[in-house]
Fold:
Amino acid sequence: MKGATKTRDVKTSILDATDRLLARRGYKKMTIDDLAAEVGIGKGSVYLHFSSKEEIALSHIDGIIERLKTRLYEISEKKSGCDKRLKEMLVERVIFRFDSVQHYTQSLDDIFANIRQRLLERRTRHFGEEAKIFAKLIKEGVGSGAFAKINPDDAARSLLLATNSLLPYSLSTEELGERKEIQKRVSGLADLLLKGVVAR
Amino acid sequence: MKGATKTRDVKTSILDATDRLLARRGYKKMTIDDLAAEVGIGKGSVYLHFSSKEEIALSHIDGIIERLKTRLYEISEKKSGCDKRLKEMLVERVIFRFDSVQHYTQSLDDIFANIRQRLLERRTRHFGEEAKIFAKLIKEGVGSGAFAKINPDDAARSLLLATNSLLPYSLSTEELGERKEIQKRVSGLADLLLKGVVAR
Structure:
């Protein structure tokens, strides 16, 4: 058991170090040597956990989305009204991602220019996973009569699409603007979207 | 008068040639010499109309948005219902931009990497100009009772923000997907947004 915990700790430490190095110098300039030094382990130990630099970067992105999905699930299970939960989820999605990369000086597209294709595939998958969590809540809302008779899957995808432009894909967080301003914009947008979803 | 027409023709020819060169090789590899050769004029003639390559590229982008704004105005002046016009404008905004750069193999962010900062400033200005056209129609809809009592400026900005992720900023048109698919997505999104705007 102790060995398993240690393995997980090292993996987490590598991903934490990845986050710091990406913020500091971007993907292209990050080397496995740097990473090993940052964690304080040998280069070979890094390769025990990951097959390549690309895998490490993609795992790091996956980790952010996994944590976000957990947050979204938690909100979707709250006892408040469907509309209130849906708004909270939309706002959380944007703000969580903003916070996750607010220390990066470049946009994600610039940081990951070298692995663009695989990152885009990842985004498509993550989008689908997030949409499922939203669709589940919308289905509940449609079933209870709180929401109009909409298709939960289509509505979930539209809602996410509508808030995508506030995510730090192509714009750095600096270019996106102040956190407070982003929060205000996503909240206003969510209110408008909610009106389109709730039953009349 | 004839001189003025000629001057305008040359300017238009330069911008048309810019479009072809950007599609073919991107901003970085486009030179004033190439441009002059493409139009069939001397390099000096190019400088009669534009002060720099940067100005030419930005004028090209401005031209696309000017033509789009004209289209949006035309739709906003139609005789159909406010909701119908608003949806048509949202769809047109996305599809017009898609069509304008569908022959480019890279995303606009990649093509214009060298003038990113000025391009972002441009985007902010264009966004505001488009929002004004939408706000005018929304104001009409609020006044006639077709739309709910919303703030036209805020609503316009939210509607544009919601459809921004379907624009070819950071994704090439190839990455964005099929035109038909984009049209379907923006249409579905517009329907949802419309429900949030129309009076109950």
User: Anything to note?
Assistant: The mean pLDDT of chain A is 92. Chain A is about 75% helix and 0% strand.
